[in-house]
Amino acid sequence: MTRYLAPLAALLLCAAPLAAQAAPPLDTTATAETTDTIFVRAQRMAAEGQGDAARALVQHEIDIASAGSPRYVDALYWRAVVAATAADAERDLRRIIIEFPLSPRNEDALLRLAQLEMTRGENDQALAHLQRLVIDHPTSPSRSRASFWMARVYFDKNQTPAACRSLADAAHNTSPAQVEQRNQIDFWMQRCHGSDTSAVASTMNDSAPSSSAPTSSATVSTAAPSASPAAPAASTTTTRTTTTVKSTTTSRAPSSSGRYTVQVGAYPTRASAESHRKGLVARGVDARVVGSAKPYRVRVGYYDTRAQAEAAAQRLKAKQISVYVTEAEPR
After folding, report:
1. pTM for the whole structure
2. Are 42 and 107 within one domain?
3. For the chain: N or C, fewer Cβ within 10 A?
4. Is the pLDDT score of 303 beyond 90?
């Protein structure tokens, strides 16, 4: 794992508190919309060791922005960039990818989350975030970086064919102007001599980590058929497991007065949300789709207190499911 930590910090940039360990450079992964001078100033302040002042500046922007507005989501992202701890950064990044999936900041948040997972050795979680970026944003400029880091994780997992296909995808989507990234791709491609890199399009289909939770409509639709096994015995087992989980959820999440819930995804179409819900149900998670217009949210449980919701979120996270605790919808 340590083999890619140094170049990872250089290319994807460490999420801030890392400002307490080493001054982070300006965020070159940001989109064109993120050149706002206030946020650039906050990042520069964090890089110069003025973390508290940088966070206060960004927090002010959050306080005055309309909840859910582009400015608000931008501020959430930058609060993660200058966060004091990795946990604080992760909380805001997860909120962006789950609560605001249509935001231009979604791609940056997925890249940074993958980076955090990689630095602590959670390779499957990192792959889930990177795969989601490639699937949900196939024409994004961020795709080449995501594919490159997928390849690095696959190499670390000794999955050379998958790594080489991801490298080929990264090379295909890297422009000649991206000289540094192209040089790194060429360096790592030396390990692919003799490997088949022609099936670039299949990278996402045959290399998804089996332990990861579905994080997009594409991965969900792959997992969903397992909910209808042909063998009666398997069907009985699945039903018994689902019943147990539902019973546990009900006992800890009253359905009549719960103020909080755990959100596990949001989608631009109801079909995608339903696909995610079905995939979760197949795994024994009692999920529901909320909303009559996009984004359609996929949520689990109703909880009287935030502490109960956080505990449920941790159980879901242990199953490799991206989660975010929020207030439950009116019923």
Report:
1. 0.60
2. yes
3. C
4. yes
